[in-house]
Amino acid sequence: ETKARVRSVTEQWRGEYLASLRERLLREQRAQETALRDALRRQIEEADAAVAALQQSARAGADEKRRRGQEATDAKARLDGVERRLAELADVLSG
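-> structure tokens emitted (95 positions)
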């Protein structure tokens, strides 16, 4: 009878211990999953921010290239106008 009681108490304690251990492991697993999800979310946000910055930089570079191209076109048009006027003036002077 004593052995049976000891066995019963031991089995009960073992069951409670295993249940608490299982619960603790599940909590730890959930905490690790949450930490992993948060770390992945941060990495995705950082990657998104880096991509957005690169896109903005590329747009700014393209805008600058267009602006410089327009400046070059405008300067060429002004130069062509000056050359025409000089040619007209040369015609008048040689005339």
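The first helix runs from residue 2 to 94.
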